[in-house]
Amino acid sequence: MIDRTFQLVRGVGPWREKDLWARGILRWDQFPAEGGAIAISNKIDPLVRAAIDRARSALDAGDLAALKALLPSREYWRLFSHFREQAVFFDIEAEDARNLRPTVVSLFDATGLRSFIRDRNLEALPTALAQSPIWITFNGSSFDLPVLKRFFPELSSPLVHLDLRHLSRRVGLEGGLKRIEDQAGLSRPLHLRGVNGYDAVLLWRAYSQGGSLEALRILVEYNLYDAFQLRPLAEHCFNRMLDRFALAEEVEPRLSVLDRGELLYDVSKLLLAITPTSADLALLDRLRSQDRDVTQDR
To answer: Which of 47, 183, 230, 249 has the most neighbouring CB atoms within 10 Å?
Structure first.
């Protein structure tokens, strides 16, 4: 889709681009050369040709920053098909609505799945995120990124942030992430259906205050799904955008949508790797001691 966009200069927006497509100018190499027919106007055509030359060079070089500079932010989604292997999909859980400190964060990128847990390895998160130039979230503009920025002032910013809450709305998918997953045919397994953000708060309390490793494992599994489900959702939304443009499959092939079955073994490995820390064992000792004291008082 990158080489189909002509929204590279001021004066060319969605409607003018659609008009070009309707007249058979579907790709950069079909835009009239200098001295040929006028596609838009004598003033704008030279600007578009110059922008196409810059964009083509950037695409050939894999220069994401240069391509981003040419595109309006609403069109960043077009970068996805070319650069999705450089993207990181992530989601965070926070302590509660009043204390927005991250508790668990899960990432999914070309290297696989990773989870970061407060008081275990959360401090490694900024370095992990910095490896990817494209960050993909759901509602991350309003929640995930501001929360992380407050907790990690040193956190870098991505070259491109694609918030699927906004893209999914453009293709007619409404509601929260779980509802949109259902609409897109990406429903979660039965044991996670109905688990929500408030449950995530309760699960963290059960672990941090009660030492329940089982609660932590459920929380991490829930958060892992929040992260890796974003990839098939992004692929689904990309394909639906192509459908909205009425671009035939043979003209603009659709992306294959990730089958989460490929990831379930990795999810199991991550959950089994969650073992008690020395702090967890100390907490359990304190709780046992308090329970013995209460029992003896009776």
So the answer is: 230
